[in-house]
């Protein structure tokens, strides 16, 4: 599987370091980062083996994986929304660290989903950060039908 296009675009401009992939799923982003020299820790509640990656099986909703403060150069969350993770993600990044977040956007027929953000909501969680990319609508370079909110923000 191919990595998320926004991750590929973002990581091109970063020096490899420590990356955390939350709700990693099959690990496509984790493997891609590891192949490019990143030291990757991946977390998901489903057990999966990902080569070259420090894999943790944990339920993020139950806070089974603590995000260590000022420990990560990059934290990636793709197509997973848990609002109470944004503060730990922000604290977990080193100064100059980058958060890459892609979540589903509210659309007609999905208004009551706790897994979707309202327009503008994702950006508000990162107010005061250097936001280098923010987009709402069809995912950049992906073929999914659902609209998303995408954000790349750097901790000052």
Element string (H = helix, E = strand): HEHEEEHEEHEE
Under CATH, the homologous superfamily reads Vaccinia Virus protein VP39
Number of strands: 8
Q: What is the CATH fold-level name?
A: Rossmann fold
Radius of gyration in whole Å, from Cα?
Answer: 14 Å
Spans where pLDDT lies below 50 across 5 or more residues: none
N-C termini distance: 33 Å
* Secondary structure category: alpha/beta
* Mean pLDDT, all residues: 94
Main sheet properties: 8 strands, mixed
- The general outline is globular
* Helix-residue proportion: 10-25%
CATH class: Alpha Beta
Descriptive notes:
- With 156 residues, the chain is an alpha/beta fold.
- The protein has one domain: Vaccinia Virus protein VP39 (Rossmann fold, 3-Layer(aba) Sandwich).
- Helix content is 17%, strand content 35%.
- Strands 1, 2, 3, 4, 5, 6, 7 and 8 form an 8-stranded mixed β-sheet that branches.
- The longest helix is centred in the first third of the chain and has 8 residues.
- The chain is globular, with a radius of gyration of 14 Å.
- The termini are far apart.
- The model has no long low-confidence stretch (mean pLDDT 94).
